[in-house]
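Question (not urgent): is this output format expected?
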Amino acid sequence: MVTNQATYGASKHPTGLWLGELVHFYDKAVKDGHTVDVVSPAGGEVPLDPRSLGRLFADRTVRTYRADPAFMTSLKSTASVADADPDDYSTIFFTGGHGTMWDFPDSTDLRETAEAVYAGGGIASSVCHGAYALINLRDTDGNPLVRNRTVTGFATVEESLAGVKGRVPFLLEDALRAQGARYVRPTVPMTPHAVRDGRLITGQNPVSTKAVSDLILAALAETE
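Got this back:
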């Protein structure tokens, strides 16, 4: 699942999908023999956060996928999550980028699809700001999916280090805790960190994508 939101709210400050959070998962999953469909809340084009394309964050995997015309073209015309059949999927993975803060939490189609995947025995997973999608998810009893569950996501201190704390509508760490989650993070920010609580698997920040992907693939292997 990727965002359609290209700016911080109504401002002109650009954001979008953090590309590495998609391609690092995509690359590992495909090489492990899985089929991956990229969908978005509204369908159509996926904006890319310019910072995710810079030398500091765009490693060899990111550069390889960015140089793939077919893959990049696919990001200009993603399917809508409303058209995804939950019965076709064993996992829903929410990628990050600050754009998710505006179109993930309140998307009815996203919520219904994710809840159906999870209720059917599938995995709900996220990395970084993708965890905004988890905030409003409910279990089959109507309780917040994250209540009393151990999760992680982009930390408040990391928003400050990224220099965008003042641009965000609310803080992910606070929002998860408000829903009863046991939010965890390491002492050192911007380091890899991923946690698994049953079929709920989360990663903290962009550099956690490989770690959270490994947990997802391990969980899938248990069911095969």
